[in-house]
Design brief:
By secondary structure, the chain is an all-beta fold. It is built from no helices and 22 strands. Among the domains are: 83 residues, no CATH class; 111 residues, Sandwich (Jelly Rolls); 39 residues, no CATH class.
Amino acid sequence: MPTIQSARIQPGTGKVTFTNETGPPVTTPTAPAQQPSFAVQTPSLGVPLYDNVIETDNRVILSLRNLTGAGDIIVSSNNGVVTISSASTPGPTGPVGQQGYNGPTGPTGAVGLPGPRGPAGQAGMDASLIGPTGPTGTRGSTGPTGGAGATGALGPTGPTGPVSAGFGVPSYYDITGYWRGQLPADSEPIHYQSIGQMLTLSPGLPGSRVVCRSAPTNNISMNLRQNNTIIGSIRFNAASTAGSFLFTSQVALLPGDILQIDSPTPPDVSLGGLSWTIVSEQGSGGVLTGFTGAQGVIGPTGPPGSIVVSDTAPSSPTPNSLWWDSAGGRLYLWYNDGNSTQWVLVR
């Protein structure tokens, strides 16, 4: 039995060329007529791949079927048994290819069916077992208001403040002014002063002086005003440069008062260069009042008083007692004014 080393399938013809150890390659015809003289096993291919087997001195001819492709097959013999196997063996596994991009996210699946309903909760307490709210109790009456306590006695008067120097001696203050040239029209003010402290103008204005550089042609008179009220006047006789004051009553000038001297009425064009000094006394009547002493300490509050309610006045009331005249509907206080004690109506 010759040894067959390999065979080649010719594409599309169904013919096989065999190569053995002792002879040249042999190609099978399309349909050999010889019957096989020994069995052919094809364990690796799984199905028979031949129709006939022809044996000669130096070659073996097989007619194969069901073979549509081309490639190498191996034909071997051992003790008269021919085995056919694929000549191609798997190559080494190639490297793992790069992972492809993630495919798009699939659509959201449909909402699942609702789960089963849980068991019912425990039943609440029967409302009929709870009793109704009880009624609100009535409000108690307001108690009577207690009587007001009597006013405590006044505390002692504080000490008198110190008296400034010059007590009993007048302190003078001069009010002066000057008008240069001819005086203005009728009753226009030539002196207008706001008083900054308490001053007193005595009757006749003793010590006061008024003169002019140019004497008037006629007798003239100029009014003195306090807050626009006439309180006196200045007079000049014709052709005289010395004037006089007509001032009959004492006047107190308070801080903020306005002292004013008016131009003469009718005007005199000859009168000019007028100068005056009005002497006043500081304070009230020339005597400076000392500072007011601090207020004395308030005395303690007296004990609570009591109110006697009756149609007639109590016979032996205590000081500062209160009596409600139930017949007349009036409240009285038993009051001592320093000279006598009597019931005084409380208003």
